[in-house]
Amino acid sequence: MSSTTLTRALTVGDVARRSGIAVSTVHFYEAKGLIEGWRTAGNQRRYHRAVLRRIAIIRIAQRAGIPLAIIRDALADLPHDHAPDARDWRRFTDAWRDMLDERIESLLQLRDQIASCIGCGCLSLKECPLRNPGDSLARLGPGPGLLTPAGRARKRS
To answer: How close are the terminal C-alpha atoms of the chain, in Å?
Structure first.
């Protein structure tokens, strides 16, 4: 690393403070391959300033419920010393759009059914979408098949 890079580099504390996350989260993101730093001659961690934008994207994506593995894959081709720009963001969101649409559909379904499912106390078993007489849904696979997109698709086929 050149001396210019080192003077403009951020310490782990700087990264944590400027991005609003804990130092342990910085280390966690690095261990998961989401961000990358280097060690100085004195064995201290340093990060490019671009890491702040990467962390902002990671946090926004996490808030949307995107798994870290998918975030890591999206960031994989992006150099660690490059601050993601609008074109990069469009590429991420284009890749995540279908997953987010599916999650929104599931959340809307849950919102619309949660009051009747949880609040009913099973007083109307004939209408309950979770009723599974004779375990007939077992052939569709494990989990709450009627409440997940994959389960609903299996039921239709």
So the answer is: 58
- pTM of the predicted protein model: 0.68
71/75 Cα distance (integer angstroms): 6
What's the sign of the alpha-carbon dihedral 92, 59, 67, 102? negative
Report the pLDDT value the prediction gives residue 4, as an integer from 0 to 100. Answer: 47
The whole-angstrom separation of Cα 147 and Cα 106 is 7
Mean pLDDT per 10-residue interval, the chain, length 157 residues: 62 97 97 95 95 95 93 91 88 90 87 66 57 66 63 58
Instruction: Determine the pLDDT at residue 83.
Output: 86
Quick one: CA torsion of 104, 106, 107, 112, rounded to 10 degrees? 120
Q: Is 146 helix (H, G, I), strand (E, B) or coil?
A: coil
The dihedral over CA atoms of 68, 74, 80, 83, expressed in degrees to the nearest 10, equals: -110
Structure tokens at 76: 């994989």
Alpha helices, DSSP H, located in the chain: 3-8, 12-19, 23-31, 51-63, 68-75, 86-119, 149-156
Residue of 24, 12, 20, 112 whose CA lies nearest to 63: 20
Rounded CA-CA distance 144/93 in Å is: 28
- Helix (H, G, I), strand (E, B), or coil: what is residue 45? strand
